[in-house]
Amino acid sequence: SQQGEEDPQALSIQEGENATMNCSYKTSINNLQWYRQNSGRGLVHLILIRSNEREKHSGRLRVTLDTSKKSSSLLITASRAADTASYFCATDLPFGNQGGKLIFGQGTELSVKP
Amino acid sequence: DGGITQSPKYLFRKEGQNVTLSCEQNLNHDAMYWYRQDPGQGLRLIYYSQIVNDFQKGDIAEGYSVSREKKESFPLTVTSAQKNPTAFYLCASSIEDDTGELFFGEGSRLTVL
Description:
The structure holds two protein chains of two kinds.
Chain A: E1 5-7, E2 10-14, E3 19-24, E4 31-37, E5 43-50, E6 55-58, E7 61-66, E8 71-76, E9 85-94, E10 100-104, E11 108-113
Parallel strand pairs in A: 2-11
Antiparallel strand pairs in A: 1-3, 3-8, 4-5, 4-9, 6-7, 7-8, 9-10, 9-11
Chain B: E1 4-7, E2 10-13, E3 19-25, E4 31-37, E5 43-51, E6 54-57, E7 64-66, E8 76-78, E9 87-94, E10 103-104, E11 108-112
Parallel strand pairs in B: 2-11
Antiparallel strand pairs in B: 1-3, 3-8, 4-5, 4-9, 5-6, 7-8, 9-10, 9-11
């Protein structure tokens, strides 16, 4: 039951360029999160945007959310070789009264060439 | 430092054998999760537990079993009934708030020979 779908599946850019990744989802959400995964490692939380927010910034990251289109984008500005990783969006689905479990997209594999 | 520890990092198993993956956290989180990741795919939820002595099946629980006898520990057993167990397994935990933000371990890669 994949909730999120991301595009592109892979993205290759030069250092210094901006990288934009998109995520679409199917049902109403409470929040949407972005995670990063270096090859062979665990995921690390980057940023969360709530359903009543439209844009959020954290350092070189900018996330937008359009609930009418059920989509989000992650922008990494002035990319660095160290940004090379896979990026996943995750949306919540409610269970019980304790918040939601997360459903992950298939990820965008970003390669930043020096 | 607080975090989640998974072991072993790499594990090889013969067909027909059960194997148990360890997951320990010292973050004092109530909820813990096991995800499976296959190449080029996202994470799929195997089992989750919101409280000690209680756990729920996720989307792909068949062939797996878990226990939650302690708050800190959530081991996953991959049984011989799991038809295609070769994968990368990720354990995560979260506090019970409205964000559901997950904290992940470094993963265990299981290969069936």
